[in-house]
Specification:
By secondary structure, the protein is mainly β. The protein contains no helices and 62 strands. The chain starts with a strand and ends with a strand.
Length: 732
């Protein structure tokens, strides 16, 4: 199996829709695909090298290889040679590093690309135009060849930018005339048997060659477009061996990109009769002819089942999984995210096992790598929510305490008033194996010191459950009760204030148990002592209000997080005059019309209709009466989205734009001043829309026409100059 170091920009908008599930009288939401957390985190035994770790990834069965280039030795600031870290999964299912492979002539770009199949690992070093081959002998990985070495010039021998391994074949890209070199293993070692080229002449000096892949029956590479000098579209070149498997006399198929400026300069994966090329899917028919069958997934890696592809994109902290259905379409069926809030942008897949690499949120260096297992069943129940706006608590089962639905000011809330001991209430119809519960919680009174309020998951009985507590003296703790004895699994700082909203989320998904505060993970452990049970609310000697409870079987995803301290292109200006101020904010200065800053989708890809978007908004000038600044969610295009506005007319409004027509969903008076920062939050979950300012719920409305197509989110304004900071987009 193989994977390339670069990702293809642009993704599709397919999704699977599941049946609605009714929870008492709560608002309904369509089910999203499964969200999967990693089953293993792969970190090198010599620490987390700066810069290069995760530059490339590859996986085959129980072997994963992580390439690292331009490493800095931790703490020393000195550059070390590139490396390829080998991890193997033992019989107990644990991943362990078994080797660190290095080049022969540092400094180098060893590890720029990696590939693995069976007992063979290939590691590219494009700086020195060679590929190192390692084969497993006993329990050791031994260097058995260096390919691409030839008297200068190295025409047709391969430069190591992209490598692929399949059985006894290795394919290596070469740049000079744009093609690939093919090597085959024999009793005499690895020998070059063919070199293919399309004589593409790329004038860009940063272009390093095409991406390649190989199977027993085909070798493939693509070319960029020449839109700067053409226009001329890119080509996809497929080579099949001739008579008796002779690669020197192949059958050649060349596809011209349908778009005059389109290119095939992206990852390629081939398996059986399916080919993924720069996100496009081709299939070989019964006549042996390759046909373009799908352009919507924009994926990076194809599984050997020929029915699963994975897409990765650095703008988001998740990868996307698509699977072919009976009709031949490729709906999105799962998302991959990490428990440690890492971006994911390089990916490979084999036998439903995915390896992905990226960097921690906000980091420019310090890579990370993760393994994900795709389960057989990816169906998930619909997200449920209860805002108690129906005036009742149908579906809740109190266990002690005194619960009732009352007015909490802006909205109705589920209030517990007894402070004499423990109090809890469980959801009767949400007994999923995997559970996530989130709520807005306002403590009203503490009876004594070290009292607490929180949430519970996998509640089996009074002696077995997971729970999170926010303590009256400050701090949040993750605990478990097993057999009547509690254990503290983790803790994190938290300022706890009476009569203020605290947003907590408790997740027990697989063996991941996590606590999120304000949509950000603060505690994450691995524990599987408790399974089954129900989610709910819980407190000790505390009077508290619970509102806007969300329950599902998926972990929450901080899909986009950006404090604008670096230009990372997570959000891009679409209208207006924007500039990035390097001390960490976006400045918009155009007062002549509308301006927007939206999440970067690299094409059609986006997050789902259940979106929570938040940012610091500071209007600096309004040009005229009733001007405004706000946030947009469920953004399909410039004429269709939901948005909240802070208005110079001193109102707060929830609106939506439908085919260019504005509809006001809700409005309240709200004082708005220039040069004042407002922390604004817009929630669009199911048929409910909520607006928060400075942490407090101010306004909510119904949006019964919400849809499930992929969407963007971001900042919008009209005839307003403003500063924007600390943006986040969360999928509940």
């Amino acid at each position: 199996m193989r994977n390339d170091a670069y990702v293809r920009r642009g993704f599709g908008r397919w999704r699977r829709v599941f049946p609605l599930l009714l929870l008492f009288n709560s608002a309904l939401a369509l089910a999203d695909p499964a969200v999967l957390l990693e089953t293993a985190r792969l970190m090198p035994a010599d620490g987390a090298p700066d810069g290069g770790y995760g530059r490339s990834v590859a996986i085959d069965g129980n072997i994963a290889v992580i390439g690292a280039t331009s490493q800095q030795h931790p703490g020393s600031g000195t550059t070390t040679r590139g490396a390829a870290y080998v991890f193997e999964r033992n019989s107990q299912g644990a991943w362990q590093q078994t080797a660190k492979l290095v080049g022969t002539n540092p400094p180098d770009a060893f590890g720029f690309d990696v590939a693995v199949d069976g007992n063979v690992i290939a590691v590219g070093d494009p700086d020195r135009e060679r590929v190192h081959v390692f084969e497993k002998q006993g329990s050791s990985w031994v260097r058995t060849a260096q390919l691409g070495l030839a008297p200068s010039p190295t025409y047709g021998t391969g430069n190591g930018f992209s490598v692929a391994v399949q059985g006894d074949l290795i394919a290596i890209s070469h740049r000079d005339d744009n093609g690939l070199a093919l090597y085959r293993r024999s009793s005499a070692g690895w020998q070059r048997v063919a070199s293919y080229s399309d004589s593409f002449a790329e004038e860009d000096p940063t272009y390093m060659g095409p991406h390649v892949d190989v199977t027993a029956g085909a070798a493939v590479f693509g070319t960029p477009s020449l839109f700067e000098h053409g226009p001329a579209p890119g080509h996809l070149n497929i080579y099949s061996p001739g008579a008796n498997g002779d690669w020197a006399t192949p059958t050649v198929t060349s596809w011209e990109h349908p778009d005059i400026n389109g290119d095939f300069n992206g990852p390629v994966s081939i398996s059986g009769n399916t080919l993924l090329a720069a996100g496009w899917i081709f299939e070989r028919n019964s006549n042996g002819t390759w046909e373009l069958t799908n352009t919507s997934t924009r994926a990076d890696a194809l599984d050997d089942d020929e029915s699963t592809v994975v897409a990765g994109e650095a703008a988001f902290q998740l990868d996307w999984v698509y699977q072919r259905d009976a009709s031949g379409a490729w709906p999105r069926v799962a998302e991959l995210t990490t428990s440690v809030e890492s971006e994911l942008n390089r990916v490979d897949i084999n036998s439903k096992r995915v390896v992905a690499a990226g960097a921690p949120t906000g980091a420019v260096v310090n890579g990370q790598a993760f393994v994900f297992e795709l389960p057989t069943t990816l169906d998930r129940p619909a997200l449920l929510q209860d805002g108690f706006q129906d005036g009742n608590a149908q579906g809740w089962t109190p266990l002690g305490g005194s619960f009732s639905v009352v007015s909490g000011g802006t909205s109705l809330v589920y209030r517990q008033t007894n402070t004499t001991g423990n109090a809890a209430a469980l959801l009767a119809n949400a007994s999923y194996p995997d559970q996530s519960i989130q709520a807005d919680i306002v403590p009203r009174a503490f009876d004594g010191t070290d009292r607490w309020f929180g949430l519970v998951a996998r509640y089996v009985n009074s002696t077995n459950y997971y729970y999170v507590t926010a303590r009256s003296g400050g701090g949040v703790q993750l605990k478990k009760m097993v057999g009547g004895s509690f254990t503290t699994l983790g803790s994190a700082p938290l300022t706890v204030t009476l009569n203020r909203t605290h947003r907590l989320r408790l997740e027990a998904v697989g063996d991941h148990v996590r606590v999120l505060v304000n949509d950000r993970p603060v505690i994450s452990v691995r524990d599987d002592d408790i399974s089954g049970g129900q989610p709910g609310v819980m407190m000790y000697r505390t009077r508290a209000d619970y509102d806007n409870v969300l329950v599902n079987a998926n972990p929450g995803v901080p899909a986009v997080v950006d404090d604008f301290t670096e230009q990372r292109w997570k959000l891009v200006p679409t209208t207006g005059s924007w500039s990035l101020v390097w001390w960490g904010l976006y400045l918009q200065e155009d007062l002549t019309g509308g301006a927007s800053l939206l999440t970067n989708t690299w094409g059609d890809m986006g997050t789902y209709g259940d979106q929570i978007v938040e940012a610091d908004l500071r209007p600096t000038q309004f040009d005229g009466a009733d001007r405004w600044i706000g946030l947009a969610a469920r953004h399909i295009d410039a004429n269709n989205y939901v948005y909240v506005t802070l208005r110079s007319s001193n109102t707060l409004q929830i609106k939506k734009l439908v085919n260019g027509a504005i509809q006001t969903l809700a409005s309240v008076p709200f004082s708005v001043a220039t040069n004042t920062t407002y922390r604004v939050r817009l929630e669009t979950v199911g048929s409910r829309v909520r607006a928060y300012v400075n942490g407090e719920l101010r306004l909510e409305a119904a949006d019964v026409t919400n849809t499930s197509v992929a969407k963007r989110a971001g900042v919008v304004m009209y005839k307003t100059a403003a500063e924007v900071d600390n943006f986040s987009l969360f999928q509940p």
